[in-house]
């Protein structure tokens, strides 16, 4: 055996002591898991029910309530925001927002989030774990996060902080087979100096499986949990090793460098300071008093990885918070919170017993009881067989008395109402109400009233969600710290949204001078600036799509938002195509309107022309009529002249006749005329 490292001994002692301190919590949490999986009766209770010929069937309301709660709180991924401190570049806020969304995506955050909330609801405690995947991105590494089984984590029992900030340390245990261990650390297959066997054969193994405690319920084998599946491992590679990742807090020296002339300051670690002071001009500036250097101690997290009796590696992480982020449910001011299952187990037990009682009474009532006088039937077994035959003829001796058919006592109506009442109590404790389950019978008639009721109904869930968002904020901060120290190279992050929208940013993009090829600046330098990472409140809660769509449509119709913003609240995937086609349609509509205006103008001009033509034709006709009138007048005047001439001639002729006859003067003729 190789010599045991003192650091490994210390880590194992802490892990053992802290694991023993949480045994009671593990026992209760394992029972909570049994309840969630439907194992509501203990072995002793089942034996008693079987002796009474009662059903051990359970009406599992707890499972549906837990699943409904998970569906509500993890409906959507959380939205992170980055708030710049001091004079930090505001443009980087959007870069950090996209980067955090990118890390959520590559970590399969939706699935990790759901599993963590599952542990939160069922056992009372879930865990996020931020880390660097060294093999990702072709060896450049990626910052990711994952879920950790709460049974694998041991915390300083003296901690009283909700997120274990005051804990002396946190240990994470992982049980690996020899094959798994060599896959992770191939160097363990090599033999150390002076040894014939490979290093892995010199490391102590373990015989216990403490990562997932076994259930005390013998009927749990109906559900394939890790403690059950391990019993089926008949592989020759059953040799197990315990890997412990131990996180503790240490003080690390940092250096604040101030320019006495400009007042500008920067914080550097010892490595960066050494690189800076290797420059001649910096040494001269320091000697001249232009630069002031002050050492400051900062809290950082140290990771010690122990395998058996050796230390695989030890390093200081550039973060001041534990990368193991707890999500505690019902806080008990200890590292051992309670679960929703534990708060509702008594109600579920009561529901099961009530249903069992009702079922047993129904069975007893459905089977008719027969009481016969002793001695009236010779063969009881034959009677029982014949009694089951509806067409049987049964003989008995009436001298002993008549058979009797006792009626079962009816079950009280209040007992029949108990299951529904108990179910409501469980839903109430979980913050799940009928309308949140899609029950249309309790829904208001109007959409506005429905949205209001939904808001009231979600207040319990939102209260719990605020606690969950506190853990998500811690996770975001841990990821931010790791990303800031890891992503020092150029990288393009791309996010494809469910609606096919693409967001892309190039981080740490180096811009060089075209002529000298000297570095001019670094665009989107995430290593600079300081930001607070926050979670948008209730961003994971489900939303009323129809209600939001109605609000946005009203805002759009009022001119408060444009159509692009309105389309964001739809589930239309091809938004760009819709907008493009809408633009084309609007252009065509504009062209149609222009053509319609032109048609109207031409129509107006035509009507005007027609009116003018009619008026012109009327004037021509009038002139023609006037000409005809003049002609008629002339003809009339001429005819009149001829008639007058003829008349005068006739009159003169008659006058001559009168004068020749000597009849005297003509009437009306003056003497002058006669003469």
Word description of this protein:
- The chain is α+β, with helices and mostly antiparallel strands.
- The longest helix is centred in the last third of the chain and has 87 residues, at 575-661.
- Among the domains are: 543-568, no CATH class; 576-674, no CATH class.
- It is 46% helix and 17% strand.
- Residues 670-675 have low confidence and may be disordered.
- It contains 19 helices and 15 strands.
- The termini are far apart.
- Helix 4 runs parallel beside helix 13 and helix 11 packs antiparallel against helix 13.
- Overall shape: it is flat
Helix and strand composition category: alpha+beta
Total beta strand runs: 15
Biggest pleated sheet: 6 strands, antiparallel
Helices, strands, pairings?
Layout: H1 6-21, H2 23-36, H3 43-51, H4 61-73, E1 80-84, H5 91-106, H6 109-122, E2 125-133, E3 142-147, E4 153-155, E5 169-177, H7 178-184, H8 226-229, E6 240-259, E7 265-269, H9 270-277, H10 280-287, E8 291-307, E9 310-317, E10 324-328, H11 340-366, H12 380-387, H13 413-430, H14 447-457, H15 459-486, E11 491-496, E12 502-507, E13 509-512, E14 519-523, E15 531-535, H16 545-557, H17 563-567, H18 575-661, H19 671-674
Antiparallel strand pairs: 1-15, 2-3, 2-10, 4-5, 5-6, 6-7, 6-8, 8-9, 11-12, 13-14
């Amino acid at each position: 055996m190789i010599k045991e490292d003192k650091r490994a001994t210390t880590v194992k002692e802490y892990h053992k002591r802290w694991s023993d301190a949480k045994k009671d919590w593990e026992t209760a949490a394992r029972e909570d898991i049994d309840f969630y999986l439907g194992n509501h009766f203990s072995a002793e209770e089942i034996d008693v029910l079987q002796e009474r010929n009662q059903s051990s069937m359970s009406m599992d309301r707890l499972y549906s309530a837990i699943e409904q709660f998970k569906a509500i709180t993890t409906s959507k991924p959380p939205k992170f925001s980055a708030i710049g401190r001091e004079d930090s570049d505001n443009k980087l806020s959007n870069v950090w927002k996209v980067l955090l969304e990118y890390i959520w995506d590559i970590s399969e955050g939706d699935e990790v989030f759901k599993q963590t909330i599952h542990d939160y609801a069922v056992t009372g405690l879930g865990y996020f774990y931020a880390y660097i995947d060294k093999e990702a991105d072709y060896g450049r590494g990626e910052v990711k996060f994952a879920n950790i089984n709460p049974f694998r984590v041991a915390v300083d029992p003296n901690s009283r902080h909700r997120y274990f900030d005051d804990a002396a340390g946190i240990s994470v245990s992982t049980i690996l087979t020899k094959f798994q261990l060599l896959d992770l650390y191939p160097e363990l297959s090599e033999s150390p100096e002076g040894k014939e066997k490979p290093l892995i054969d010199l490391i102590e193994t373990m015989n216990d499986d403490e990562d997932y405690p076994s259930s005390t319920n013998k009927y749990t084998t109906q559900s394939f949990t890790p403690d059950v599946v391990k019993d089926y491992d008949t592989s020759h590679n059953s040799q197990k090793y315990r890997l412990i990742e131990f996180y503790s807090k240490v003080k690390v020296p940092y250096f604040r460098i101030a320019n006495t002339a400009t007042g500008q300051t920067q914080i550097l670690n010892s490595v960066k300071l050494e690189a800076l002071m290797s420059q001649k001009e910096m040494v001269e500036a320091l000697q001249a008093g232009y630069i002031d250097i002050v050492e400051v101690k900062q809290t950082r997290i140290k990771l010690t990885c122990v395998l058996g009796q050796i230390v695989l590696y030890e390093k200081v992480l550039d973060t001041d918070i534990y990368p193991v982020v707890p999500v505690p449910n019902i806080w008990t001011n200890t590292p051992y919170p309670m679960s929703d299952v534990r708060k509702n187990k008594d109600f579920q037990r009561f529901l099961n017993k009530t249903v069992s009682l009702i079922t047993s009474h129904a069975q007893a009532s459905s089977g008719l009881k027969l009481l016969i006088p002793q001695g009236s039937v010779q063969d009881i077994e034959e009677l029982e067989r014949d009694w089951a035959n509806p067409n049987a003829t049964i003989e008995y001796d009436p001298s002993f008395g008549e058979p009797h058919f006792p009626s079962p006592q009816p079950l009280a109506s209040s007992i029949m109402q108990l299951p529904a009442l108990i179910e409501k109590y469980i839903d109430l404790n979980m913050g799940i109400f009928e309308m949140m389950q899609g029950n249309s019978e309790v829904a208001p008639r109007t959409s506005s009233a429905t949205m209001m009721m939904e808001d009231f109904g979600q207040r319990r869930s939102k209260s719990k969600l605020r606690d969950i968002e506190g853990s998500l904020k811690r996770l975001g901060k841990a990821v931010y710290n790791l990303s800031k120290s890891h992503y020092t190279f150029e990288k393009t992050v791309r996010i494809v949204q469910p609606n096919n929208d693409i967001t892309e940013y190039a981080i740490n993009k180096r811009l060089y001078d075209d002529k000298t090829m000297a570095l001019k600046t670094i665009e989107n330098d995430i290593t600079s600036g300081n930001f607070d990472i926050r979670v948008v409140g209730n961003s994971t809660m489900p939303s009323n799509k129809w209600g939001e769509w109605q609000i946005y449509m009203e805002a759009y119709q009022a001119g408060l938002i444009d159509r692009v913003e309105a389309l964001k609240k739809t589930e239309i995937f091809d938004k760009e195509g819709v907008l493009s086609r809408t633009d084309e349609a609007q252009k065509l509509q504009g062209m149609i309107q222009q053509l319609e205006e032109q048609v109207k103008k031409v129509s107006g001009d035509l009507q005007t022309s027609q009116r003018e033509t009619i008026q012109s034709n009327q004037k021509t006709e009038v002139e023609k009529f006037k000409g005809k009138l003049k002609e008629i007048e002339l003809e009339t005047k001429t005819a009149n002249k001829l008639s007058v001439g003829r008349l005068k001639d006739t009159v003169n002729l008659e006058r001559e006749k009168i004068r020749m006859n000597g009849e005297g003067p003509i009437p009306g003729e003056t003497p002058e005329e006669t003469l």
